[in-house]
# Entry
Amino acid sequence: DQQVKQNSPSLSVQEGRISILNCDYTNSMFDYFLWYKKYPAEGPTFLISISSIKDKNEDGRFTVFLNKSAKHLSLHIVPSQPGDSAVYFCAASASEGRFSGGGADGLTFGKGTHLIIQP
Amino acid sequence: DAGVTQSPTHLIKTRGQHVTLRCSPISGHKSVSWYQQVLGQGPQFIFQYYEKEERGRGNFPDRFSARQFPNYSSELNVNALLLGDSALYLCASSLWQNEKLFFGSGTQLSVL
# Structure
């Protein structure tokens, strides 16, 4: 059973507009969430993370929002640029910062959303 | 600085064979993790090693094993290969007490 769900396999957004990628989780033990970006033939690259003690974290054009009661998080990219076209993975961990790289259970990833930025 | 390096980049094996995949972490990173990514899925956790000890293991059969060497590099071994083992195998390194994983480009394994 998928503990981290990204229900949109793909998303097309016009350049300059806002991209919103969504992620839902079912495991209430998850307390740390990360977004990774992946280009073809490359490994995933860390983008931004958020701890369960916060509801928002911002880094430049990227903002992650966490709604713990709904077990939902979203990644906002503003403004969207052509180089943002990639697959975005949501990941979760049940070990906030206490262990390296997700701890004994590792990171649990969603299936990814393919973001396409249209010129 | 070099990132996480993995070898080989591509590999073709037949069912029943054994395979060894290699990974060198970022300099200074003492923790190495292995993930399997099947086409259309997200990466799935296999192992985590720190200071040459296994610190975490995902839901994979005993055919999968790994080790970490004194220089912090790591090997992932898979015995008795099945068609379903065809996947991209990702290695990631991290600093201990830090949540960020830095991934290599992976080894694409095809089992025929």
Q: What stands out?
A: The first strand of chain B starts at residue 5 and ends at 7.
